[in-house]
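Session log. Operator J.P. requested a structure for one protein chain; no other inputs attached. Running the standard single-chain path with C-alpha cell output.
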Amino acid sequence: EIEIQWLKNEQLEKEGVAFGEEVQNGDWTYQLQVMLETQPQRGDVYTCQVGHASLEAPITVQWGKPLPSIPSCSVEPILP
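Structure written below.
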C-alpha cells in the first residue's frame, strides 16, 4: 500500500486533497496522482510525503517558489 499525504506548514492537510485513479504504466509500475487545492498564503510551506513498505523512510518533497538560477561563468587558463 502506498500512502500519499500533503502537509501545510508541517501539519497534515485533509481539506482540498483530491485522489486520482491508479494508472498502470505497463511495466509493473504505477502512477498515483494526489492533488491539493488551496489558496497559498505568504510564508506557507507545502510538502508532499509518500510512504511505502519498501522505503526505509517516507519520501518528502517540499514545494515552493523555484530558486533563481545562479549565473555561471567559465575560466580557461592562459598558457604562456
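Operator note: The chain is about 0% helix and 40% strand.
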